[in-house]
Design goal:
single chain; about 150 residues; mainly alpha; 7 helices
């Protein structure tokens, strides 16, 4: 801890104080900044900065930066509305489970009667030529369908 209070590390001390103030005060993230941070590229850049701080700064400052990064991402998603959308919008699994619940019908009397009916058997061997010959009605001088000029 004494290393952080040296004159060479005064910038890290000021940064630690600013990060603590940001965490405690709970400032809202402005909309333009929140929309940049709430993207995939913004989140990757924030975590690259945190990893850089773990490699080159005091460990206490790096852990504080990690906490601020998580809080900044949370506040940004709340400012853009993506957080509420993920929490309250139904997922496809929820929608499909509701649809299957609505489409469960009881076994009806009609289904039971159709199931008990004797099947219609059609065999070409058992059928004989019909005893009647179809007749055409008056076609009012119309030409046949297969008529060729």
């Amino acid at each position: 801890m004494d290393n952080l209070f040296k004159k060479d590390h005064m910038g890290q001390l000021v940064l630690a104080i600013l990060l603590i103030i940001y965490l405690i005060m709970g400032y809202k993230t402005p909309e333009p900044v929140a929309s940049m941070i709430d993207s995939l590229v913004g989140k990757i850049i924030i975590f690259i900065i945190v990893i850089y701080m773990f490699m080159h700064c005091h460990p206490i400052l790096a852990v504080l930066a990690l906490l601020v990064a998580f809080d900044l991402i949370r506040r940004s998603s709340a400012a853009t509305g993506l957080d509420a959308l993920q929490r309250f919008a139904p997922s496809e699994e929820k929608k499909s489970s509701q649809f299957t619940a609505f489409n469960q019908f009881p076994y009806t009397l009609e289904q039971e009667v159709v199931k008990k009916m004797a099947p219609i058997i059609q065999t070409s061997a058992g059928m004989s030529k019909p005893s009647y010959k179809p007749l055409l009605e008056n076609d009012h001088d119309a030409s046949p369908v297969n008529f060729k000029n």
